[in-house]
Write a structure and sequence with these properties.
about 25% helix; 14 helices; alpha+beta; nine-stranded mixed β-sheet; globular; about 30% strand
Amino acid sequence: MKSSKIPFRTLREAPAEAIISSHQLMMRADLIRKLGNGLYTYMPLGLKAYRKVENIIKEELNASGAMEFKPTVVVPGDIWKESGRWETMGAQMLKAKNRAEQDMVVSPTAEEAYTAICRAGLTSYKQLPINMYQINTKYRDEIRPRYGVMRGREFNMMDGYTLNASDESLDESYQAYAKAYHRIFRRLGLKVIPVKADTGAMGGSGSEEFMVESPIGDDTLILCPKCGYAANVEKASCKPDIPVDDKGNAQVKTDLPYEEVATPNVFSIEDMENFFNTTSKRFIKALIYRVINSSLDLTGTAGCENLKRVKEDGFEFYPVSYVCVLIRGDLDVNEAKLAGLLKASEVVLAEDEEVRQISGAPHGFVGPVSLNCPIVQDLSVNDMHDAFAGSGKEGFHIQHVEPGRDYSFWKNADVRTVKSGDKCCCGNCDGEYYTTKGNELGHIFKLGKKYTESMGVTYLDENGKAAVPTMGCYGIGVDRVLASIIECFHDEKGIQWPMSSAPFQVTIVPIKYKDAMKDAADKLYQQLSSAGIEVLLDDRDERPGVKFNDADLIGFPIRITVGDKNLPNVEIKVRTQEEASLVPLEDAAEKVIQMVKGELEKLNA
């Protein structure tokens, strides 16, 4: 390919909206162009790099035993109503009606489509497991799309799905995808960290994210340097720590009854520390949460007598309910854990008026003793004694509170946010966690029967009886992977593509494309192309500095410079190295062929 045939234009400066390196460099190198907010078009050079990533994903998944299929992007709303996610996916799902007034969805994900497709052809256990994947376009109406293709509204995903007859079979599929993921990211030059993760709106029994460390990452990772434990902060657990008093000793049980203390103008934990002259580890923090679309059965639960339970397309849930979370004063609630515990689409802190209605007191004075809603007690409160808490009355707190004596709770669970310095939860490991930022590139889920049961998928088992298959889901964000490669491999001049994902592996830059320089450049181009090397010949009538700057900006791994001053030698420069080397023209093609193959062998090892 010759540069003059490619419609590209490079920019000296990135648009002001581009604030991360990958977004800036993709715009400057003309890999993408913006069409609308969160909507980007891949230009020819960008699409070539994108296809490289896509093809590596396909090769490894095909080798693992998965088969490619392609559902439509627009799907019937009815299948989303069957699964129960028509309402719970929220405003990010783009809904429409066709001319027959049927509800349609521009797919934000494809679990429903896969389940409906497989349901139509599944009859016998002999057909299981079914293992298929797609690479397709999706749309999610992000409130604030940002970072270019890293978080756009329209994006491309690989979604793999399996239907399995047993949990053992599901685990085999799960592990096969995990191994394929490791090979995919290794071939792309990315060092990923597999971390335990929250299943979120996907549901299911377990999941694992494949993260790459990044200062602009959306996720906080909790890592143990001693045993290798890794988890997303939304999922991470830690060893329980003993609550201490203001002298650092373990808290001691009291026989004193709790009593009110007038605390005017004491609202926050810091206010309480100053007022009572003690540590925040002696305070029980009470927070009222509004719970959205909880599918738990709250029948007979105190404070829930008047809640309205809704049934839509076989899915029962409470559109709105409330809980009070009790947690030690120095800790924070992990809302993802709480939403998972309550099987809710979302939990948010209640507004002031709601807090007063539920607790009888404003925020800051809410307490566990007199509440009109279920109490979720974090495990950190279990070993607390002689504690302080809100009284449920404005202007007062209570002291000498004994959990388990002075109030009862509805659920006792881990809903705390783990942080740096907490102790590792693994067995006898005494490592201390540290945190880093990361970007999620891939995710694998054990969905179980969440979708197959709700959507009525059955088959005949070995005994001729109807059975429901279990299901797995496996995703990779293709655009996000491409952007993450650039985030990991760039310098002040531009992109530094790994050999496996570069739009072209080699660029030939003649100082002037004429006479002996043209003949030499054409000869090299022919030799490299014949050997299967992806090469771009820069035949543009531009100054050498423009060509060199563009080559560095776009990031071709190897540049061959052909100049009349050096002929019969040519200059070979690796993008990631400072120095170039002079090589006889007759030897240059073979040398570059071996360099390209050597780099690919390293990545594919």
